[in-house]
Amino acid sequence: MIKTFYPALLVIAPLLAALLCSGFSWIQKKFCYPIVLVGLAISLFSAFKLLMIVLTSGTIQYRMAGWAPPFGIEYRIDLLNAVVLLIVSAIALINLVASHKSVLQDMKEKLGAFYSVYVLFVTGLLGVVATGDLFNLYVLLEITSLTSYALIAMGDPDRSPIASLNYLFIGVIGASFYLLGVGYLYIMTGSLNMINVADILQNLHGSSAVLIGFIFCMLGLWIKMALFPLHIWLPNAYSYTSISVGRLIAPLMTKIMVYVMIRLMLNVFGFNYIFETLELSKVVVWIASIAIIAGGVMALAQKNVKKIFAYIIVSEIGYMVGGAWLGNQTGMTGSILHIINDAVMTFALFLVVGNITFCLKNAHLNNFKGLFSKMPWTMAGLVLAGFSIIGVPPTCGFFSKWYLILGGIEAGAYHFVGALIISSLICAILFFKIFEISFFESSIQNKQQNEHKNHDKIAGITEAPVSMLISLGLTSATLIILGVYSDSIVKNIITPFLTQYKMVI
Amino acid sequence: MDYITSIKPLLTVLVSLAVIPFLIVTSKKPNIRESCTFIAGGVKFLLVLSMLPAILAGNKIVFNMFEIASGVSIAFKVDGLGMLFAIVASSLWIVTSMYSIGYMRTLNEHGQTRYYCFFALAIFATIGVAFSANLLTLYLFYEILSLATYPLVTHHQDKKSRISGRRYLIFILGTSIALVLPAMLYCYHITGTLDFSIHGIFASGQISKPALTVVLLMFVFGFAKAGLMPFHSWLPAAMVAPTPVSALLHAVAVVKVGVFSIVRVIVCIFGIDLLASFNLGVVVASLASITIIVSSCIAMSQDELKRRLAFSTVSQLSYIILGVALLTPQGQLGGIIHIVMHAFGKITLFFCAGAIFVATGKKYISQMKGLGKQMPITFAAFFIGALGVIGLPPTGGFFSKWFILIGTIESTQKLFLIVLLLSSFLNAFYFLPIIYQAFFSKDEKEQNLPVQIKEAPLFCVIPIVITAIISVILFFTPNVFINLIKIALGI
């Protein structure tokens, strides 16, 4: 076992930052931002260090306060969550920098509160990913959820509180389901440590209590990750909130839930239990296929770009759930790769929306007219992110789709393959609809609008601030880098991880 | 035969990508900007030529970039086929750039920097397709090409180009995602590789006939840039683009990429032997024959010159597919060499159409009566180009038709012979009246006016003359290309 304090540092640093920040918000508000920045930077550094350690010397087990499991809480960092931690902390930090200006603009009085809740949310997410304890996961999940309700309610004053309340009701139900499931498992095994539970469960495969526990856990997670038809809370919550929040929650929250699902499937219940004892996988892959198509179709009907992107997330969740439930290594590889890729892709999309709303005040499709000439760099980012969602090589979206489709063919799940392809086509339509509006109607419309009233409003648009553009540029470059290095990610991280947990057939 | 590892293929591909920042920086100074394009074009062409001797000596030049999944990497391999296509595309890029200057400046088009940038990007992708070592690399560049041409097709940014652009994307991007991608993944699932090999990648008995038929058709229709009916209608629609775009991309680069991809799949993924053993060549050849005849008939009814040329292109592309699908050595030779011959012939015709538009503003054939006296050079070149496409001496087009004809005789399918003869007749029928009218009939309104010679600007006329002359030269020295094909196919 490797002795290292990074797992603790990873979570403690943002937690302390949250405390300090709420303290300083009474004294001197301008210190809030630097404190949070430092906290998240320490997290990012720890996550990076953890990944390096895991890559060289294997899984890290960190026992909180030295208590041994099953009594103490254990943080387990293996290849999978090391990568996810890195993504989470990086996105949180980049978003913090990118949203600095718009936060100053939108939340003058609530600045301190906003930053404390923001960093607390990140703490929760990091904890959820790092923990190796089922109940601790629930606690951290609740921290994440409660802070996200608060964050979402800080958006559009008319609509976001209701969207947040809606999300709260459904989210609480999801969390309760998960807690119930964990309760069943605790009754059966007497332990809450994942590894411990997994060992004991091996002898309990026929038990109906375990089955019920499993189903409750999965249902809870599906509600939280917005798997169609349990998605209704998501689009409003993500599109009515302020963009600095949406950008943080939209790429991370749902992806982390998929991560937790995969973690439970592989580490707690085990591959054999899910794909051999239970015969649920066909049903779930069907649900996922329907989710993929339904998300896409609903996105087509939207006029607000934020909502379009929110529905794309619903569709992408179908990708990951379907891939994970195909029951073969290729599909699981695709699903895990897509967690990473989709987090970055969605983040890039919401960064673009952020830049546009910062300059235009809202993200309705009609406002996109002529944007290619007004905001060329932002639009270049949108083009790249869009291509990645559609799955055009060499952007990363292509490569996860590659594994997912291949996994579908291997499993003989042609409906899933069909759904993936149709969804690519729908995404192509969606994005080219946006590109078309922004590319055409520029030169011609402008001439007409010069005589029109709202001339000033349109002509006043210039490119977003540099800090936002750099964040977007960085993220867009990551889309290509992830694509180019997708093979090394698969070979060095995902395949060893799956081998470690016997997900190799 | 040796494999030479060299970075040259990568450099050749990247040259036109690397020039884009320079184009953007110099956007305020058009002359410097265009010089950049020329320098890039020249460097690219020279790099291609520098690899020619090694290829003619029977070697292959390879360069591996990085692995994507086990057994598949982004990699370049220059063989005879790729070399042939690269020579055509890179040489014509230079000529077209020259023509673009004449065309775009005379018409005072907007967004010229954007135009040159995406043009360079399109050529980058075209050469990438030519040098691809496996199907995944080819697919990557194929998609880049689809997306890079969209802003060129919709250059005018008006309602008409918007509709055409939409159709263009639906056909090109839609088919490649919906048909090629799953077909490619299915091949990878079965064989575990996508590397082009002259014997195909399938071991005997690895795939059943129904499955093979479906996958083959998915590829043939999926590469919709080849314009096989019913996936052809994007090409006439794409004629809203400025003429240089139609000339280089929709007579040479884009459409030939489609055909080239189909040839690659037939020859290097399935392999001639496998297809012959299942007797599947006939299926593809029949599809191609239908396209040849039907689109020739449609071409006759078109009054807009560029649309007539577009339908002619649709039919000529299917010649290439037909030749290769005959699965006989001469048929393949004829089909593939038609990539070269048709390129020079058709680009001349498009250049002429553009020159007529620049000089007189006329787009419709019915308006072009008596125009030959006003623009003798243009119409003389048009005549040579038409001969090349019809396949008559003294142009290179003669050879491709000749070899395909021999190919049909070699194969037992005599029906295709009739298709070829009939369509050559149709070709003559829709081209020659244009030339006849231009020279020998008179526009009734302008009958009494004295005829003055009024050619398009020099930057337009010189490229026309160059491509027309090359069409003729190819009749006398087609050997380089024939050798390249023979080396590539091992015949």
In terms of topology, how is this protein built?
The complex is a heterodimer of chains A (505) and B (491).
Chain A: H1 6-27, H2 32-57, E1 60-63, E2 74-77, H3 79-98, H4 100-106, H5 111-130, H6 134-153, H7 160-189, H8 194-201, H9 208-225, H10 234-240, H11 243-269, H12 271-277, H13 281-300, H14 305-325, H15 329-360, H16 371-374, H17 376-390, H18 396-411, H19 414-439, H20 443-451, H21 455-459, H22 466-484, H23 486-500
Chain B: E1 3-5, H1 8-25, H2 30-56, E2 60-69, E3 72-78, H3 80-106, H4 112-131, H5 135-153, H6 159-191, H7 209-222, H8 234-237, H9 243-270, H10 272-278, H11 281-300, H12 305-325, H13 329-360, H14 371-374, H15 376-390, H16 397-410, H17 415-440, H18 458-476, H19 479-489
Parallel strand pairs in B: 1-2
Antiparallel strand pairs in B: 2-3
Characterise the protein shown here.
The complex is a heterodimer of chains A (505) and B (491). By secondary structure, chain A is an all-alpha fold. Chain A folds into three domains: 1-132; 157-279; 283-505, no CATH class. Chain A has helices at 6-27, 32-57, 79-98, 100-106, 111-130, 134-153, 160-189, 194-201, 208-225, 234-240, 243-269, 271-277, 281-300, 305-325, 329-360, 371-374, 376-390, 396-411, 414-439, 443-451, 455-459, 466-484, 486-500, and strands at 60-63, 74-77. In chain A, strands 1-2 form a two-stranded antiparallel ribbon. In chain A, helix 18 packs antiparallel against helix 19 (414-439). Chain A is globular and about 65 Å long. Chain A starts with 5 loop residues before the first helix and ends in a 5-residue tail after the last helix. Chain B is mainly alpha-helical and 491 residues long. Chain B has a three-stranded mixed sheet. In chain B, helix 4 (112-131) runs antiparallel to helix 5 (135-153).
